Amino acid sequence: MNIWYYLEGDQKKGPVSRNELREMVISGQLPHDVNVWREGMIGWQPLNKVDLFDSGEPYDSSITDYSRARQSQVVAPFGYAGFWRRFFAYLIDIVIIIFIQGLLYGFEFFLTSATAGTITGVTYMGLSLISWLYWAFFESSSYQATPGKMALEIKVCDEDGRRISFLRATGRYFAKILSALILYIGFLMVAFTSRKQGLHDMLAGCLVIKNPDTETE
């Protein structure tokens, strides 16, 4: 009863166990709405319309809260990262950025005063570039997390639990400007929204989840 099959295009794949199917979705190998079937089911059905984590029986899709709960188990099996965990991860990243900033200013210090003005402008541009690349590169990498997020065992994904692109990571980074402009309310939203999303997360279609590779809670 726990042997499952799934469709890739029109091709039937399997058999796989319920746990194997679950892990394939969590890792991003399969979308959460992939069509699945097992013995006893009437036809193929999208995974997000099947109670995979209990008996595997279809459930009433009109029960919105239940549907969302099951989708959350697939996308964020260890839960969403809360405000304070994300805050302390951010502090670690800021320390790293400040260290890089110190290196740039140290380099500038040894330059002649005749070129200092020009180099100062270049330095500020360099700091902005480094900050953008730091967050966008790490969050779109295979780690899906900056060093600060790795330390706090969280990572960034899209709303289906998949790794985000560099372009989307860039959009999320610059959307933080909007979160800050409205008296930082965009960041405080993390503490009050159901999926712990800030305004910048919502605009970029991203989630920050506890990392299933290292989370032990």
Description:
The chain is an alpha+beta fold. It folds into two domains: 73 residues, Dna Ligase, domain 1 (2-Layer Sandwich), CATH 3.30.1490; 128 residues, no CATH class. Helix content is 49%, strand content 13%. It is built from eight helices and six strands. Strands 2-1-3-4 form a four-stranded antiparallel sheet. A two-stranded antiparallel ribbon has the order 5-6. Strand 3 and strand 4 form a beta hairpin. Helix 3 runs antiparallel to helix 4 and helix 4 packs across helix 6. About 6% of the residues have low confidence.
Q: Segments where pLDDT lies below 50 for 5+ residues? A: 54-67
Please work out how many helical segments DSSP would assign.
8
Number of strands: 6
The count of domains is: 2
Q: Secondary-structure map with pairings?
A:
Layout: E1 3-8, E2 11-17, H1 18-26, E3 35-38, E4 45-46, H2 64-75, H3 83-109, H4 113-140, H5 147-151, E5 154-158, H6 166-181, H7 185-188, H8 199-204, E6 206-210
Antiparallel strand pairs: 1-2, 1-3, 3-4, 5-6
Helix pairs in contact: 3-4, 4-6
